[in-house]
Amino acid sequence: MGDTTIDRGVKRGLAAVCAAAALSVSTPALAQTAAGTTIVNIARLTASSPSTALDSNAVALTIGAIVDAAIVADRASQPLTAQNEVGFTIRNPGNAADRFTVEAVAGERGPAIAVDVDGDGQIDDTERRAASVRPVVALPPGGERRILVLVGDVPVPLAVTATVTAARGHGAPGTALEDDAVIGASGAQATATTRLTDTTDAARFDKTQAVRAPDGSTRAVPGAVITYTLVAQFVRDVRNARIADMIPAGTAYVPGSITIDSRPATDPVDGDAAQLDAGTVRVALGDVPAAATRTITFQAIIQ
């Protein structure tokens, strides 16, 4: 027996899978095996006496598509201006190319959205002129594009929310779609918000989160650890500044995870500025001068 018992077509398929795997390793953005990839496996049995070399039959499967969507705001808040252009980045976290619809709401408005069509990270005048209220953006797996919501002049502070939705469909994670596609963890729809604020505010206060699952991915699954980062940038002198952040429902605080300006802080009431008080992280910043920035982080685990 030996290699002559293996169908040459299977060998070619195996070679193609290896090539695809090599490509995924060399392209960090592709965290998942690409949809349509065929995975082939053949086992070999050998024995010294009698001399034996026997290949099993080949088993194969084709990877289906995971349909997902993600969006991140450039900033959690920004001051009001005459133009009020608000930036976001949309991303395809799935394992197959897809098209995504983008919409935005600013108060009662549905503002136009300009897309970085050429992918250079900038929105030029041509891309601004092509702005529409519901652009459709094609993205490869792992691909991303910057967008700019053209809010224009507004008289009062308001929230600008952008929503990205996969064209194949959206809904509960795990829902089956056509062509063996499955909706991913985001529900194939995601939103992000930037608040336009009055520049008379004493500080700008932004919050971000980063997720690390047990398998090393960024999926929000039980056992995943969320790192919350709070950044307070002070515009003018303030007295007795305090921060309070309640641990969200569905998660549990990770003991000893608070840091203040990259320095560890303890959970009990003691000599440092932080404490965990009945499920709320509290930090007493005290008097803070203008132009100072204070950064607090802590972690929670998804239950």
UniProtKB/TrEMBL annotation:
Residues 1-31 form the signal peptide. Keywords: Signal. The keyword Signal applies. It comes from the Bacteria. NCBIfam families: B_ant_repeat (TIGR01451). This is DUF11 domain-containing protein. It comes from Sphingomonas endophytica.
